[in-house]
Amino acid sequence: KVGWYNAVLQPAFHLPYPDDTLAFVVLSTPSMFDKALKPFLNKERLKIIRDPVDQCVSHHLSRVKEKFPDQKVDIIYDYEILPSRKPKFLAQTAAHVAGAAYYYQRKDVKLDPWGKKKIYGVCIHPKYGGWFAIRGLLLFPEIQVLFLEQSAPVDCVSTEEKRIELLEQFNFHWQDGRYRDIIEVKERYSEEQKAYFATPPAERLRLLGLTREAQ
Q1: Name one GO biological process term (predicted).
Q2: Which of 65, 203, 186 is CA-nearest to residue 132?
Q3: Is the pLDDT of residue 214 over 60?
Q4: How far is CA 55 from the centre of its chain?
Q5: Alpha helices in the chain (DSSP H)
Q6: pTM of the model
Q7: What is the C-alpha to C-alpha distance for residues 160 and 166, in angstroms, rounded to an integer?
Q8: Are 104 and 80 in contact (CB under 8 A)?
Q9: How far is 19 from 42, CA to CA, in rounded Å?
Q10: Tell me: the pLDDT tens digits for 166-207?
Q11: Residue 210 needs a FRET pair 20 to 30 A away by CA distance; which of 104, 130, 169, 172 works?
Q12: What does the alpha-carbon distance between residue 172 and residue 176 come to, in Å, rounded to a whole number?
């Protein structure tokens, strides 16, 4: 429910819907790369004008919207920002309140070792660890779910030591991606996918054999 999200945030970040409004948080799993992104790029290779992943997600969520012709469906993407430069929604908070992934933050560590350093939180999925992404929100403004029960996210990094290790790795060594494997995972990005996301955006199409000329 939108109300679960609004309840844990300052008013500046609230979504402008009634509390009982139904919302879905959309995640992409490791297999998205082969099952969705590569087929999309092959089909749309002449139309890629922004970020290929963003366009792929937009394409698929638009198709979801078409499945509900009698319903109003609002989509908010993870990359969208307001005129104030704030994000349109806080993806990790949304994933946590929806029970999709646990958002580990500084407040989840009792004996904080970081002093005055800025420490960012990170979501961990019980099956994919850090090998997933939060892509958007699907909102159904005309559907009110008064009796929907909230499910807590799985607390899969449950010890103090592991939480400190997770936040250390994410904040200070995020480039090596070790934080993604803080738990035993069922599936992770392929080597090709890792290379793709490690490549500067301007060169990603060439990596997949789709050149700028085609674009």
Answers
A1: cobalamin metabolic process
A2: 186
A3: no
A4: 15
A5: 2-7, 32, 38-44, 52-66, 91-97, 160-172, 191-198, 204-207
A6: 0.92
A7: 10
A8: no
A9: 41
A10: 999 999 999 899 999 999 999 999 999 999 988 887 788 777
A11: 130
A12: 10
**Other CB atoms closer than 10 Å to residue 93's CB: what's the count?**
20
The CA distance from 20 to 107, in Å, is 28
Q: Scanning the structure block, which residue is given the tokens 């994933």?
A: 95
Give yes or no for a contact between 104 and 160, defined as CB atoms under 8 angstroms apart: no
Mean pLDDT of 22-51: 89
Tell me the per-residue pLDDT of 57-89, one tens digit each, with 9 for 90 and over.
999 999 999 999 999 999 999 999 999 899 999
**pLDDT above 70: residue 142:** yes
Helices and strands, number each (H, E), in the chain: 8, 5
Task: Give the pLDDT of residue 41.
Answer: 86
SS3 210: coil
Phi, psi of 83 (to 5 degrees): -55, -25
- CA 109 from chain center: how many Å? 23
* pLDDT band, residue 105 (cuts 50/70/90): very high
DSSP reduced 3-state for 133: strand
